[in-house]
Amino acid sequence: MQKAIVSAALAAAALGFVPAHAAGTPSPKDALVYFIWPSDGTVITGGKFWVRMGLRNMGVCPKGVNLPNVGHHHLLINTALPAMDQQIPSDRNHLHFGAGETEARIELPPGKHTLQLLLGDHDHKPHDPPVYSTKISIIVK
């Protein structure tokens, strides 16, 4: 029985069939999310600062809006990219901007921190292909 299931899955893959749950909301292959500010290596005094998020070849919209080529920002702080086939976590390391914000004032304690942007779809899942920025490092004094 298990051998038949594996054979059917291999045959489906060979014919180009992919299970519906395997792919997320489509994104353009040339989509780009990036930091407007801060830039890599920025030294911030005082801990409070504005993060300004940019997006190219897609649009920003609030969570729950299910339209082609749109999404909303998520800021990853001191963490790796999450699983690309699941909802983006919501905690102190994964900040959601579900109202469609393109900038936010955040506060971090003194030290070195990494920041990365990840665009989420209407259901807080990464797109397919995922749209994420280069990870940057900042220092808070």
From TrEMBL:
Residues 1-22 form the signal peptide. Keywords: Signal. Pfam families: DUF4399 (PF14347). InterPro entries: DUF4399. Residues 51-141 form the DUF4399 domain. This is DUF4399 domain-containing protein. It comes from Noviherbaspirillum cavernae.
